[in-house]
Protein 1
Amino acid sequence: MSIKRALVSVSDKTGIVDFCRELSQMGVEIISTGGTSSLLSKEGVPVIGISDVTGFPEIMDGRVKTLHPAVHSGLLAVRDNEEHTRQMQELGLGYIDLVVVNLYPFQETIAKPDVAYEDAIENIDIGGPTMLRSAAKNHAFVSVVVDAADYSQVLEEVRSGGDTTLETRKRLAAKVFRHTAAYDALISDYLSNVNGDPLPERLTVTYEKLQDLRYGENPHQQAAFYRKPLAAQDTLTTAEQLHGKELSYNNINDANAALQIVKEFEEPAVVAVKHMNPCGVGIGESIYEAYSKAYAADPTSIFGGIVAANRIIDSDTANKLSEIFLEIVLAPDFTQEALDILTKKKNIRLLKTGELNAARNRESQFVVTSIDGGMIVQQSDVHSIEASELNVVTDRAPSEEEMKQLLFGWKVVKHVKSNAIVLAANDMTVGVGAGQMNRVGAAKIAIEQAGDQAKGAVLASDAFFPMGDTLELAAKAGITAVIQPGGSIKDEESIKVANEYGIAMVFTGVRHFKH
Ligand SMILES: NC(=O)c1ncn([C@@H]2O[C@H](COP(=O)(O)O)[C@@H](O)[C@H]2O)c1NC=O
């Protein structure tokens, strides 16, 4: 068999003229629709208009042009089926051996800010996916191309053997069904959201591969990195790597965690992360000051860590960063001097995120956790709190400085694995107790890590204290103020201990579990 007739109908016309010209020179007849046909004619490629094949005009602003039996029988006929062949001859129909289609730009359309609903609907392609599906189903005989990246391989095979190989047609068919499935998923997602139904009876999210990863969490685990079709511009999936080795699975997980935390802050902030937990967080007047604090918070754990900043990295900060081994530095950007300093280090990875949108961090989106046999979906934890919303439950209210540190600690503890306790003083974390099976255990770790710095520090707890023991421990360590959700049946026990020691305690009424 050989390819004699091709149907070409593309929205993205990149490379289409050269592709069709070569096909035409090899004797392939090209049938095409409105805009594609005009372009090919203009460029001198011989082309037959779709209406000459269907005997029907392209109507309704292009809504109906290829949706015709003359097209679909030509695509779907089983070439070695006698009955199909007889019907084709009887009705005067011709085979179509190759379909080249890419679809109306639905994704690009809905990505536009304030896109009109009617505009989105008009960009739902109907005829294109129908042809793609017909051709892909009949891949035993028909070649189908949805991606310009495949033009060269198709040309090569037609040039050498008159047709593509069955292996290629199978690969192209599978690619088409992935493509149309993703296209429909985006449409259904858009419409579900417009209808205010983001968790419908069937979830059809799709992702596009950014890269294969060398391995997963451990070297014996296969892994890859995927992005949502409409990922925001200040995420790890859109960051530009300026220097260093390829990101690993664990790098991506940790860098994502660091980015989520640093986006909590409007003021200059730096977050150091190890194993998904912040080991040091600092804020300051400058990014240098913020990094100095994040570093001082825990100079041991930061080694080999991931550092995220929410301001451009300057040369002073770069010099300080380069004093230790860090896996990754993520920032909106780097000055040229900073890059010159940091790129001297072979093993550091530098990621430019572009401007971070702290406000977007407070917009809810859905996050997925896979479980064996399925997944659970929830809104992301975007809750933030103001001083005026806190409920002072002790005899003493926090001082202005204590209140500042409490709110800082609360922003950080939200991102620490539960059970979580964070101690803060002077705009930095001084102790972090993460991922413990009991709250008092988390507090012990945070207090021990803080050492002398626990004296005069404040304490933030991601969930309420089930009994008074954590407060007792905190008081003995010299903690002066506490922020926690409240709501335990033994709240009174904790309040009593706090009052005994002159601790100021506030309830948020909100819990920040993170598992
Ligand atoms: N309605 C149809 O019969 C139809 N047939 C092909 N299309 C699409 O029309 C586009 C190409 O249009 P043009 O050649 O006019 O620039 C392609 O994206 C193709 O997928 C159609 N448009 C939408 O459904």
Protein 2
Amino acid sequence: MVRFENVSVRYGEGAEVLRDLSFDIRPGSFQFLTGPSGAGKTSLLKLLFMSLKPSHGRVELFGHDTDKLCKEDLAVLRRRVGLVFQDFRLLDHLTTYENVALPLRVLGRTEASYRNEVVELLRWVGLGDRLTALPPTLSGGEKQRAAIARAVIAQPELLLADEPTGNVDPAMAQRLLRLFVELNRSGTSIVIATHDLALMDEYDARRMVLHEGHLHVLD
Ligand SMILES: Nc1ncnc2c1ncn2[C@@H]1O[C@H](COP(=O)(O)OP(=O)(O)OP(=O)(O)O)[C@@H](O)[C@H]1O
């Protein structure tokens, strides 16, 4: 589903942030991406989301060489990927419910067909009483849970999450991990970037460790 071949990234004239990365992400797999602050986790997620181009090497996603795709093709491929940004990126003028429903609207589904699904998921992440709240009135942890709900609602083929439990307490972090595990069981490949050792200890999954630009994979 994803193949990196000798991929490197540098920003401007700076040193290489990622060096010569080669790995695969298989369909239906689950991996944690970890490493110290500044190690390049967000940069690697951006490569996977095709919002950053490698300085060297080749990134293949869903069987396509991402370098050869035009903007329109990239937009279509991105619909198959769910992304939880570190800074959430909720739309402030839409309610929590509308934010989470957005990926289903983009897919052309009618509200009658998805309303129950969206409400049920928002209840699961503890936002059942915040459906009509606008994002600026949500706490950091509530925004994070809304962003996760939006990323998983359409059951993407690949889910990328950047520090998805950074703003919630340990009990909620476990609950969110269960959500990711369930999504994975229904077929989604998962990549969770995290510093949270306790979270990684909760679930026996592949670990991709970035250190000084190099990637070490512990299967
Ligand atoms: N747009 C950019 N321009 C220049 N340098 C950048 C840019 N984005 C990231 N960097 C640098 O690349 C390196 C890796 O950053 P990145 O955000 O990928 O790390 P990270 O592992 O996600 O960090 P954290 O755990 O703190 O979020 C850092 O040294 C950072 O300063």
